[in-house]
Amino acid sequence: MKILVVEDEYYLSSSICNFLTKENYVCDLAVSYAEAEERAALYLYDCVLLDVTLPGGSGLNLINRIKDHKPTTGVIIISAKNSIDDKIKGLDLGADDYLTKPFHLAELNSRIKSVFRRLNLEGKLEIKTGNLVINPDHFEVKVAGNILNTTKKEFQLLLFLIQNKDRVLTRESIAEHLWGEEADLTDSFDFIYSHIKNLRKKIIENGGADCIHSVYGIGYKYSEA
Amino acid sequence: MKLLAKTSIINFLIIAILLIAGGFFVFSQLRAFIDEEVTENLYNQKTRIEQFVADSVRLPHQTMQGADIILFQPTNNSVLESVIDTTLYNSLEEETQPYRMLRFQLNFSNQSYSVVVAKPVMESDDLVETLTTTLGITGAVLLALLLITTWLVSRRLWKPFYTTLSAVQQFQIRGNKSVLLEKPSTREFRMLNQELEKLMSRILDDYRNLKEFTENASHEIQTPLAIIRTRLEQWVQSEHLPHDDQDHWRDISEATNRLSRLNSSLLLLAKIENRQFVDSEDVPFQELIENQLHQTEEMISHRHLIVELDCTEEFSVAMNRHLATILVSNLIGNAVRHNVEHGTIKVSCTSKGITIANTGEPPLVPVEKLMQRFQKSDPAADSTGLGLAISRQICDTYMIAIDYRFENGLHIIEIRK
Hints:
The complex is a heterodimer of chains A (225) and B (417). Chain A contains eight helices and 14 strands. Chain A is α/β, with parallel strands linked by helices and 225 residues long. Chain A has helices at 10-22, 33-42, 62-69, 84-92, 105-120, 152-163, 171-179, 185-205; strands at residues 2-6, 26-30, 47-51, 53-54, 57-58, 74-79, 97-100, 127-129, 132-135, 140-143, 146-148, 168-170, 212-215, 219-222. Chain A has two domains: 2-120, 3-Layer(aba) Sandwich (Rossmann fold); 127-222, Orthogonal Bundle (Arc Repressor Mutant, subunit A), CATH 1.10.10. With 417 residues, chain B is of the alpha+beta class. Chain B folds into three domains: 3-144, Beta-Lactamase; 172-276; 281-416, 2-Layer Sandwich (Heat Shock Protein 90). In chain B, helix 1 (3-56) packs antiparallel against helix 2 (124-157), helix 5 packs parallel to helix 9 (387-397) and helix 6 (285-295) packs across helix 8 (321-337). Chain B starts with a helix and ends with a strand. Classes of the chains: A alpha/beta (225), B alpha+beta (417). Chain A binds chain B through residues 9, 11-12, 15-16, 18-19, 22, 80-85, 100-106, 153, 167-168, 170, 172-173, 179, 181-182, 184-187, 190-191, 215-219, and chain B through 219-220, 222-223, 225-234, 236-237, 246-247, 249-250, 253, 256-257, 260-261, 264, 267-268, 271, 276-277, 295, 298-299, 302, 322, 329, 333, 337, 382-383.
């Protein structure tokens, strides 16, 4: 999967690229409006991460060009402006998602995957890992063929973990993914702990492997190894 | 004290001092003049008596009648000429009066006489009385005239000043509108108005700059924060993170999260202050409250809270929906967060307002300070201390009254249209 990161802040874009490369994406960088325009016209991308304020112009103006070039390119706006207006404007112009800085990389990863699924596989793909099958559209999890009875939050948590397989997910990123930015951190950590406990119990009871590992004081990790 | 009152008091004092001092001066002058006149008259009388005696070779009639008194008394001793002040009976006015008398020696047909001529002196009391009345009336008339002129003058001359004053009173820093002042013909007032206009536009500029600065600063902080966060997330992925590094990581991560929350709260506050939420619609609060209660369901059941929602009437406000959501989420969030195990949350709404009452520990910060920025009832808590400040800012923006009180172990927040 090929991704273009349009971000003028070098340290941030290199960080993102670094991370995406580790996730087995092919990552290109653009640091200005002109460069982004050129790259978007020359190459076909599966996903473009687009900063709004760029030297040389507003990233919002690029959305149309990217979509014209290849309609199934997912466009995720990454902006420092957390304003509703900007969000609506971006989505109206055809962006697929909107992330406000500072975001968690795991969150970005999860969004990229969701956008890609929505645009390219019409959301029909089930996610398989080990003997676990997740259908994000029906909020359904099967373990060794048995349907797992999960709550909505447990489902979201499991999906988030699996989308970020083999990565340590910090408790903060999980809390923000599940409850949004307003989440009360200390309390949510307790909830995450109990959700994880329930999930593990349910998965093991239904014949699944215990793949959710806790990283003491930091977070959790889904890993089959 | 009003300017007019102050001027009047000063006028009154000056007039009073002038009249009293003047009164004393006039009194002493008059007194001296009258005394001199009476003494002169007495000496004239003496000359006339001596003349009479020389011409008609007999003594004039003694008289006790009327105001003037002439008395003769034969004497063997020599009489020393003297002027004496005394009181005598005035048969004309039938009362004892102050008199001035002249005693002198008169020799007639080998006989010495002591002659006394006396004239009534005007009584001091009478003089003082007359003077006081005259001067008092003059003073009163003067004062009245001055009052009227001052009043008229102040209405006319000071009119531009009062116009400016009421215009400046209308000036609101948040209204973001400069006040246009008149150009009066009085030079001082014209200068005052010019300076005031400059001052107001400078204040507005500064305020605008400050607001923009807050917003820009918050924006600029987002990107470095994003860099720190992404680096942190990558760092923690490395397989065998040493134990010490884990601790460091946790500390940095916590601090970053706090900074990030603080920054986004400040940004929100700045945006509300900058009136960047322009869209407005009729927002029904009951719906928002129900949504919020639904969203915090987990926490509510986790802490075994009992929620009572009593909405007999619909409370709705024409405002920005997003801000209304933030307001409700802050208030309900607080009611859940600052509650006790097995506590209660009671939400009641009428068409006039909403009351949210919840059980909880008494606040550690003075009640009136709770709505200020960075006031936390528990300093160690993981909150930014901006929640209530944001709520108040939202309420202020839409002229909604918000009150907090702690009563019978209940935290009560009330918002009213």
